[in-house]
Amino acid sequence: MELGVIGILGAGQVGTAVARQALKAGYRVKIATAKPAAEIALLAEIITPGAEAVDAAEAAAADLVVAAVPLHKYRTLRPDLLAGRTVVDAMNYWAQTDGVIADFDDERGSSEVIQEFLAGARLVKSLNHIGYRELEVDAREPGSADRRALALASDDDDAKAVVAGFIDRLGYDPIDAGPLSAGRVFQPGTTIFNAAHTAKQLRGLLAEANEPARP
After folding, report:
1. How many Å apart are CA 188 and CA 179, to the nearest integer?
2. Strands (E), the chain
3. What's the CA gap between 151 and 26, in Å, rounded?
4. Mind listing the pLDDT tens digit for each residue in 51-72?
5. Are 163 and 128 in contact (CB under 8 A)?
6. Residue 211 exposed, middle or buried by CB count within 10 Å (0-12, 13-18, 19+)
7. How many CA atoms lie within 13 A of 165 on its CB side?
């Protein structure tokens, strides 16, 4: 599937960084928050020049949607608007910043909770283990020896393929980590989350993280 329009839900540091990088990659970008489009139009013009400020419903209708709201506000996302859409979950659970959120204080990865909430969406966890500043400076052409790799996890293979193409076009090597539950191994506090890796390094870390525990 050839993507043309990227919808960004969230105009914070992550959402705007993804928007700018997507614009550099040649995508048309629509950005939205919970506010009416008119209220964020000036922000979009200054922070993400070239992106269109739209209402959430229009952003959710894009070819690919990136959810980049603060995780404690995840219930502001509209399950009805995102049903059937391919959605990248770029959000992270930061208990030290947001406080303990009961929804995420269990054995599941944060994206598994988001998938339960967005039951009809085709969710892919990715873009969460790269800093928003790094996203715009670490991009490299395909085949570059120092090209950084980004993991993605999903229970939907077709959605993973779409997001892999998006990540590649942003300037990174997409690495399939497996099902959505595998997203736990690149959440905050993990070895993968805390550093940059090439494709070879990331594959090795994923394999190591997924090895069954020895008795």
Report:
1. 18
2. 5-9, 28-32, 52-53, 64-67, 86-89, 122-125, 149-153, 173-178
3. 22
4. 999 999 999 999 999 999 999 9
5. no
6. exposed
7. 14
When the pLDDT of each residue in the chain is averaged and rounded to a whole number, the result is 94
Q: Which two tokens stand for residue 117?
A: 């909430």
Q: At 99, is the secondary structure helix, strand, or coil?
A: coil
Place of tokens 């608007």: 81
User: Which position has the token pair 């030290």?
Assistant: 96
The answer to whether 53 touches 44, Cβ cutoff 8 Å, is yes
Cα 21 to Cα 31: distance, rounded to the nearest angstrom? 13
Domains and CATH numbers, the chain: 5-209 (3.40.50.720)
pTM here? 0.94
CA-CA-CA-CA torsion sign (157, 158, 163, 164): positive
Nearest C-alpha neighbor of 76 from the set 131, 160, 14, 11:
11
